[in-house]
Write a structure and sequence with these properties.
This protein has about 230 residues and is α+β, with helices and mostly antiparallel strands. The chain contains 6 helices and 8 strands; from the N terminus they run E-E-H-E-E-E-H-H-H-E-H-H-E-E. It has 2 domains: about 80 residues, Phosphatidylinositol 3-kinase Catalytic Subunit, Chain A, domain 1 (Ubiquitin-like (UB roll), Roll), CATH 3.10.20.90; about 140 residues, no CATH class. Helix 2 packs antiparallel against helix 4.
Length: about 230
C-alpha cells in the first residue's frame, strides 16, 4: 500500500511511501527516508497520525494504527540525536574521572602543596564510595539497562553531563581540599553504613529504565522481587 507523508510543522506533503500492513513504525521511518530522500534521517523522525498529535510507539504496525491505502501520516524532525546508552556512559564516566583527578589534588585546583596536610580517612572513604557508585552505574548501563527509545536529542548530552560533572567537581574540590575538616568519625561511619545499606536494598530490586516522552526525564521503575523460602 501507499501512504501520504506530510510535514507535521506546516502540513506540506513530502510524497508517497510504499509499505505493508506488517511494517512497524521503526521500519517505516527507514522506509520513508529511503524512498523520500529529502526527509530527515530515520533516527531524527517522529511519526504522528495528526499534525499536532502524539508520537506513536515504534513497536506499532501500520495495521495496528489503522492506516489504510492512501492514508496520511505526519513526520516531525527531532533534530540531531544521540544514543541513550552513549549519554548514560558519558554522564557516569565523567564523575568517575573528575573525582579521581581532583582526589590527586592537582595544581590547577590547589596550587603548591608543600606544607599541606595529607588526605584524611574521610577523603579516602569518599573516593572509594564515589568510585564504587559510578563504576556500578557504568556496568549497569552496559549490561543491565534497557531503553525504550534508541536515541534522544543531542542537547541532552550537554545538559546531563554539565549536571553530573559539575556537581562532582564541586563536591570533590571541598572534600579533598587541604583545609577540609572531617566531621566526627562516628558520623562518617554512619554515612558509610547508610551507603552500603542503600546498595543492599538496590540490589534486591529489578531496575528498568524507561523514557518519559512528555517530560524527557528518566523514570526508574522498581519491581520488587518476591523471595520465598522452603522450610
Amino acid at each position: 500500500m501507499d501512504i501520504e507523508i506530510y510535514n507535521a510543522k506546516n502540513s506540506k506533503p513530502y510524497g508517497k511511501c510504499h509499505v505493508t500492513d506488517d511494517t512497524t513504525v521503526s521500519d517505516l521511518k527507514i522506509a520513508i527516508h529511503k524512498q523520500i530522500p529529502q526527509t530527515p534521517k530515520a533516527e531524527r523522525l517522529s511519526i504522528r497520525l495528526e499534525a499536532r498529535g502524539k508520537q506513536v510507539k515504534e513497536s506499532e504496525t501500520v495495521k495496528s494504527l489503522g492506516i489504510q491505502n492512501g492514508g496520511k501520516i505526519y513526520i516531525k524532525d527531532l533534530g540531531p540525536q544521540i544514543g541513550w546508552k552513549t549519554v548514560f556512559l558519558a554522564e557516569y564516566a565523567g564523575p568517575l574521572i573528575v573525582y579521581l583527578w581532583v582526589y590527586t589534588r592537582p595544581y590547577v585546583f590547589y596550587g603548591a602543596l608543600e606544607n599541606a596536610k595529607p588526605l584524611g580517612l574521610t577523603a579516602h572513604i569518599a573516593a572509594a564510595c564515589y568510585t564504587f557508585h559510578y563504576s556500578k552505574r557504568l556496568l549497569e548501563t552496559i549490561f543491565v539497562h534497557r531503553f525504550s527509545h534508541s536515541t534522544m536529542p543531542l542537547s541532552n548530552l550537554f545538559k546531563n553531563c554539565s549536571y553530573y560533572w559539575g556537581f562532582t567537581a564541586y563536591v570533590s574540590y571541598h572534600i579533598n581540599h587541604p583545609l577540609y575538616t572531617s566531621p566526627c568519625m562516628w558520623t562518617v561511619y554512619a554515612g558509610l553504613a547508610g551507603f552500603l545499606k542503600h546498595f543492599q536494598l538496590w540490589n534486591s530490586k529489578e531496575v528498568l529504565l524507561r523514557a518519559d516522552k512528555t517530560r524527557n526525564r528518566y523514570l526508574i521503575i522498581l519491581k520488587l522481587k518476591i523471595y520465598s523460602s522452603v522450610n
